[in-house]
Amino acid sequence: MPTILVAENDAPIRKLISDVLREQGYRVLSASSGDEATGLAARSDQPIDLLVTDIVMTGMGGADLWAWMKAEQPAARVLFISGFMSREPLEGAFLKKPFTRTELAEKVRAVLAQSAAG
Protein backbone atom coordinates (compact mmCIF):
# COMPACT_ATOMS: atom_id res chain seq x y z
CA MET A 1 0.00 0.00 0.00
CA PRO A 2 1.64 3.28 -1.08
CA THR A 3 2.17 5.99 1.52
CA ILE A 4 1.14 9.51 0.53
CA LEU A 5 2.10 12.66 2.41
CA VAL A 6 -0.42 15.47 1.96
CA ALA A 7 0.75 19.02 2.75
CA GLU A 8 -2.03 21.59 2.44
CA ASN A 9 -2.60 24.60 4.69
CA ASP A 10 -6.35 24.87 3.94
CA ALA A 11 -7.98 22.44 6.39
CA PRO A 12 -11.13 21.57 4.36
CA ILE A 13 -9.07 20.92 1.21
CA ARG A 14 -6.53 18.88 3.20
CA LYS A 15 -9.36 16.78 4.67
CA LEU A 16 -10.95 16.24 1.25
CA ILE A 17 -7.66 15.13 -0.30
CA SER A 18 -6.86 12.84 2.62
CA ASP A 19 -10.36 11.31 2.62
CA VAL A 20 -10.29 10.64 -1.13
CA LEU A 21 -6.86 9.02 -0.94
CA ARG A 22 -7.82 6.84 2.04
CA GLU A 23 -10.95 5.73 0.16
CA GLN A 24 -8.63 4.68 -2.68
CA GLY A 25 -6.71 2.47 -0.25
CA TYR A 26 -3.61 4.59 0.33
CA ARG A 27 -1.90 5.17 3.67
CA VAL A 28 -2.12 8.95 4.21
CA LEU A 29 -0.08 11.28 6.38
CA SER A 30 -1.62 14.74 6.58
CA ALA A 31 0.18 18.01 7.39
CA SER A 32 -0.97 21.61 7.58
CA SER A 33 2.44 23.06 6.64
CA GLY A 34 5.72 22.19 5.01
CA ASP A 35 7.43 22.16 8.40
CA GLU A 36 4.86 19.73 9.82
CA ALA A 37 5.22 17.57 6.70
CA THR A 38 8.99 17.22 7.13
CA GLY A 39 8.46 16.07 10.70
CA LEU A 40 5.85 13.49 9.67
CA ALA A 41 8.07 12.18 6.88
CA ALA A 42 11.09 11.95 9.17
CA ARG A 43 9.11 9.97 11.77
CA SER A 44 7.27 7.71 9.31
CA ASP A 45 7.99 4.01 9.60
CA GLN A 46 7.26 3.66 5.87
CA PRO A 47 8.92 5.45 2.96
CA ILE A 48 6.86 8.21 1.35
CA ASP A 49 5.84 7.16 -2.17
CA LEU A 50 4.13 10.41 -3.11
CA LEU A 51 4.08 13.96 -1.81
CA VAL A 52 0.86 15.85 -2.61
CA THR A 53 1.57 19.48 -1.78
CA ASP A 54 0.13 22.90 -2.30
CA ILE A 55 2.69 25.15 -3.92
CA VAL A 56 1.77 28.23 -1.89
CA MET A 57 1.82 27.69 1.88
CA THR A 58 2.83 29.85 4.82
CA GLY A 59 6.39 29.11 5.89
CA MET A 60 7.95 26.33 3.86
CA GLY A 61 6.19 26.23 0.49
CA GLY A 62 5.65 23.23 -1.74
CA ALA A 63 8.78 23.70 -3.86
CA ASP A 64 11.03 23.85 -0.78
CA LEU A 65 9.22 20.88 0.75
CA TRP A 66 9.78 18.91 -2.45
CA ALA A 67 13.50 19.81 -2.46
CA TRP A 68 13.75 18.50 1.12
CA MET A 69 11.79 15.35 0.26
CA LYS A 70 13.98 14.53 -2.77
CA ALA A 71 17.09 14.77 -0.60
CA GLU A 72 15.61 12.59 2.15
CA GLN A 73 13.64 10.09 0.05
CA PRO A 74 14.88 10.09 -3.55
CA ALA A 75 12.35 7.46 -4.69
CA ALA A 76 9.38 9.69 -3.79
CA ARG A 77 7.30 11.41 -6.45
CA VAL A 78 5.42 14.71 -6.24
CA LEU A 79 2.02 16.06 -7.22
CA PHE A 80 1.81 19.84 -6.87
CA ILE A 81 -1.63 21.38 -6.42
CA SER A 82 -2.48 25.05 -6.70
CA GLY A 83 -5.17 27.46 -7.72
CA PHE A 84 -2.57 29.98 -8.84
CA MET A 85 -0.57 28.17 -11.50
CA SER A 86 -1.87 27.34 -14.93
CA ARG A 87 1.08 25.23 -16.08
CA GLU A 88 3.07 22.36 -14.64
CA PRO A 89 6.09 23.16 -12.52
CA LEU A 90 9.43 22.29 -14.08
CA GLU A 91 9.63 19.05 -12.13
CA GLY A 92 6.71 16.87 -11.08
CA ALA A 93 3.04 16.52 -11.85
CA PHE A 94 0.51 19.33 -11.38
CA LEU A 95 -3.22 19.46 -10.63
CA LYS A 96 -5.00 22.81 -10.77
CA LYS A 97 -7.53 23.71 -8.09
CA PRO A 98 -10.41 23.30 -8.04
CA PHE A 99 -10.43 19.62 -8.95
CA THR A 100 -12.92 16.82 -8.53
CA ARG A 101 -12.47 13.74 -6.36
CA THR A 102 -12.20 11.67 -9.55
CA GLU A 103 -9.56 13.97 -11.08
CA LEU A 104 -7.50 13.73 -7.90
CA ALA A 105 -7.74 9.94 -7.73
CA GLU A 106 -6.85 9.54 -11.42
CA LYS A 107 -3.89 11.93 -11.21
CA VAL A 108 -2.49 10.18 -8.11
CA ARG A 109 -2.83 6.78 -9.81
CA ALA A 110 -1.04 8.10 -12.89
CA VAL A 111 1.85 9.59 -10.91
CA LEU A 112 2.29 6.43 -8.86
CA ALA A 113 2.19 4.33 -12.06
CA GLN A 114 5.01 6.46 -13.51
CA SER A 115 6.93 5.83 -10.30
CA ALA A 116 6.45 2.07 -10.61
CA ALA A 117 7.47 2.15 -14.26
CA GLY A 118 10.70 3.87 -13.30
Describe the structure.
This protein is an alpha/beta fold and 118 residues long. The protein is built from 4 helices and 5 strands, in the order βαβαβαββα. The chain has helices at 11-23, 34-43, 62-72, 101-117; strands at 3-7, 27-31, 50-54, 77-82, 93-96. α1 (11-23) links the parallel β1 (3-7) and β2. α2 (34-43) packs parallel to α3. The mean pLDDT is 92.
Give average pLDDT, whole number. Answer: 92
H/E series: EHEHEHEEH
| Percentage of residues in helical conformation | 40-55%
Radius of gyration (Å): 13 Å
Spans of at least 5 consecutive residues whose pLDDT stays below 50 are none
The coarse overall form would be globular
Helix count equals: 4
Beta percentage is: 15-25%
In the CATH classification, which architecture applies?
A: 3-Layer(aba) Sandwich
Into how many domains do the coordinates divide?
1
Q: Supply the CATH superfamily name.
A: Response regulator
Q: Quickly name the level 1 CATH class.
A: Alpha Beta
- Helix-strand makeup class: alpha/beta
Give the beta-strand count: 5
**Biggest beta-sheet profile:** 5 strands, parallel
Distance between the termini: 18 Å
Strand line-up across the major sheet: 2-1-3-4-5
CATH topology: Rossmann fold
